[in-house]
Amino acid sequence: MAISTVPAPTFRLPEDLMLAVANTFADTMATRRSVRDFSPEPVPMKVIEAAIRAAATAPSGANIQPWRFVVVTDPDCKRRLREAAEAEEREFYARRATPEWLEALAPLGTDWHKPFLEVAPALVIVFEVHRPRPYYVKESVGIAVGLLLATLHQAGLATLTHTPSPMKFLNQICGRPREERAYVVIPVGYPAEGARVPDIARKPLSEVLVAS
Q: How far, in Å, CA of 48 to CA of 54, rounded?
């Protein structure tokens, strides 16, 4: 049965303003970096809620909206999550990671230690919801996560995308049902005083844009 319809939203700007808005957003996002050294200073929960509200506007296959955002701030829960994640990461770095993978990570200096999971004031754990039926779940959740990261950055908060593998332990720690599968853990907060990030560069537009 077809759903009812409403008029398409109209949000048209003069061309010069369109370009200014797009460039301002792009310039702001160009300053985003993945932060691994967080301050324990609390962040406004209302800001995280607003960012999740923005993320939940993402398009999704068949409008299933297959996402769940679990916000963890409890110190004991964060400690247990860190311990479980580090156990998986130790195994990954010692046995499961390929030489190519380790070579790619080497310049960033990452290893199995994940203190940010305990220090960051909030963790947003994004789950894929595989019910009532899977329909472009990963693609839909990926778009939502992009909106979440962009909104948090625009609001002045630092983030990191962390994907310990495997992530089944997150269901138990967060009390989530089997039909939900962890997609990413996102520490949220302010950078610690004196925090530093790798001096990386993005590929130029000429390398990533193909116009035809």
A: 10
Supply φ then ψ for residue 98, to 5 degrees.
-80, 160
d(CA 112, CA 50): 32
What does residue 122 show for φ and ψ, rounded to 5 degrees? Answer: -145, 145
> Residues near 58 by Cβ (< 8 Å), separated by ≥ 6?
67, 140, 143, 144, 146, 147
The CATH number given to whatever domain includes residue 98 is 3.40.109.10
The verdict on residue 209 lying in a domain is no
Q: Is residue 88 in a domain?
A: yes
User: Would residue 206 count as lying in a domain?
Assistant: no
Q: 4 lies in a domain?
A: no
Q: pLDDT, tens digit, for every residue of 106-146? A: 888 889 999 999 999 999 999 999 987 778 999 999 999 99
Q: Which residues contact 138 (CB under 8 A, 6 or more apart)?
A: 128, 183
Token pair, residue 36, equals 């691994």
Count: domains in the chain: 1
Question: Structure tokens of 17?
Answer: 């303003």
Domain that holds residue 169: 39-191
- Cβ neighbors of 61 (< 8 A, separation 6 or more) are 135, 136, 137, 139, 140
CA-to-CA dists, residue 96 to 75, 103, 105, 110, 166, angstroms: 30, 14, 14, 15, 11
pLDDT digits (tens, 9 = 90+) for 52-109: 999 999 999 999 999 999 999 999 999 999 999 999 999 989 988 899 988 998 888 8
Amino acid at 131: R
